[in-house]
Structures are given as C-alpha cells and as structure tokens.
Write a structure and sequence with these properties.
By secondary structure, the chain is of the alpha/beta class. It has two domains: 179 residues, Rossmann fold (3-Layer(aba) Sandwich), CATH 3.40.50; 65 residues, S-adenosyl-L-methionine-dependent methyltransferases (N-terminal domain of TfIIb, Single Sheet). It contains seven helices and eleven strands. The strands form two sheets. Strands 3-2-1-4-5-11-10 form a seven-stranded mixed beta sheet, sandwiched between helices. Helix 2 packs across helix 3. The mean pLDDT is 89. It binds S-adenosylmethionine. The site of S-adenosylmethionine has 19 residues, from helix 3.
Length: 255
C-alpha cells in the first residue's frame, strides 16, 4: 500500500528536522549496530526495508559499503534515487520479497512496521527477515506502541508551518470488518495541508495514512516462535521499556 504520496513534500522536514532529528537517530542506530557487529565494519551487509526518502540511508552509506534499500512507494524511491546508487534501491513489499541474497543486518526504522495493518503482515515481515538474514546476525526494528497511538489519538492535533503552507496532523482510532463483537482496530492519520495558491487563497489537500501496532509481549512471543532470540528491547527516549514507552526498538538475533 502506498503511503505519504501528498505528505511526502513535508515528510523529511517534519520527521527529521523536528520530531526525530537525523543526527540522533543515526547515532543511536550506528551505536546499536556496532555493539553487535562481529566483523570489520566495511564488510557488513545491510538491508534497510521501508527506507523512505534516503535521509537515514544516506548517512549509512557513508559508514557501510554494502547496503540495499527497499520500499513499497515509488515516489519515496524517486527522491532517494537523486542521492543513492539506483541499483541498490528496490521497489518491493517488505511482507513478501525474495532477493536471493542474505544479509548481516536487516533494519526497519522509524516505526515503518506500523504501516502493516494486520498481524498476518507483521508475521510475514518477520518470516521475510528471517529468510534474508545470515545466521547469528540481527534484525532491528522499532514500533510506535499502542500506548503512543492511544495518546496521539486522545491528546492533540499537531500543526507545522512551512513558509506560507500549514500542515495539520490528527490521528483517529478506526475499525474495519463486519465482526461487531470483535472489530479490527487501526489508527489513521488525517493529514491536512493548507497550501497557498497564487491568488492568495489556500487550497486544502488531505491524505490519510493508516498505522497499527500490537502489544509488546505478543510481538516478543511471535519473534521467539520464529526462531529469533531477542537480544534487547530499548525505549528510544528513556532506555528502559515500560508501559508508557512510546517508541520501542527490538534487536533480535537469528538463531
Ligand atoms: C515512516 S516512513 C519511514 C521511512 C524511513 N525508514 C525513515 O526512517 O525515515 C515509512 C515507510 O514505510 C514504507 N512502507 C510502508 N509499507 C511498506 C511495505 N509493505 N513494504 C515496504 N515499505 C513499506 C513507506 O513507503 C514509507 O517510506
């Protein structure tokens, strides 16, 4: 499923300039990878799934020689192509891909896994990662927790101003399916962009982006079922994972 087609113009500005500065994230990920690397840095092979526009990837390319990037959105990859070697960019769904190659590290960063709406898709991503990892090497991904989605849904609308344009982000809790006793829940961003038109009026452009999450204990159980050993879970902001963690990293070893 494509995401962020309209929001794309503002994505890096909001995500990397404001919400989660690029330097912090690259430093965090580099330290994490170096903690678990078992050989020379230059010889480590990395697959970054759901790579987005390249910003994190570009920093990785400076540090590691062998990186392949994969994303489902051609528009994201179009931006990435301006900055990265095209042959290393792959348009593919991370729940179903086959690269005929295995890697030392598979990375799925900035809660990209939350764009997979069903538990089956999360399971498929874990299977794909397992299949494409070298033995004893690691999968790193992070989630927005259910606690975080519930807080965003309840608490606020976010406003960002860029020159003459204003972007408003709100999240709503939604359900789908016919089973009213046990409806399937997901969370949906409503992105409203007030874009200045040449005649001094504003055009309102909207886009919806769906996300989902699952309880940490269920994710851990599934990873263990899939023969991963969980090396650690980390709260991105406070290190210790607790019930009010908003963003949690999982570091898992292929057994
Ligand atoms: C929140 S962005 C994160 C981008 C990047 N990882 C970063 O750190 O900036 C989520 C990305 O996941 C991608 N995505 C969503 N579903 C996907 C899927 N099934 N397979 C591959 N990529 C997917 C989107 O196209 C988008 O680029």
């Amino acid at each position: 499923m494509d995401t962020y087609n309209i929001f794309l113009e503002y994505y890096d500005k909001i995500v990397r300039w404001i919400n989660s500065p690029l330097e912090d994230e690259v430093e965090f990920l580099s330290k994490l990878i170096q903690k678990y690397m078992q050989k020379e840095i230059q010889s480590i092979s990395i697959l970054e799934t759901a790579c987005g526009t390249w910003v994190v990837a570009k920093e990785f390319e400076k540090l590691w020689y062998s990186v392949i990037w994969l994303d489902i959105n051609p528009k994201m990859l179009e931006i990435a192509k301006n900055n990265l070697d095209e042959k290393n960019l792959i348009l593919w769904d991370m729940t179903n891909f086959s690269l005929q190659k295995s890697f030392d590290i598979i990375l799925c960063n900035y809660n990209s896994i939350c764009h997979l709406l069903t538990w089956q898709e999360w399971q498929n991503f874990f299977t794909m990662s397992y299949n494409h990892l070298n033995k004893w090497w690691i999968l790193i991904f992070d989630i927005n927790t259910l606690y975080e989605f519930e807080s965003i849904t309840r608490d606020f609308a976010q406003f960002y101003t860029f020159w003459d344009d204003t972007v408003c982000l709100e999240m709503f809790k939604k359900t789908w399916g016919n089973n009213t006793d046990s409806p399937t829940i997901f969370y949906e961003w409503l992105i409203k962009i007030f874009k200045k038109a040449p005649d001094w009026r504003y055009d309102l452009i909207t886009e919806n982006v769906k996300e989902n999450s699952f309880p940490i204990n269920i994710i851990k159980k599934e990873l263990k079922n899939k023969w991963f050993k969980i090396l650690e879970t980390i709260d991105f902001h406070y290190w210790e994972v607790n019930e009010e963690s908003e963003r949690v990293y999982f570091v898992c070893e292929k057994k």
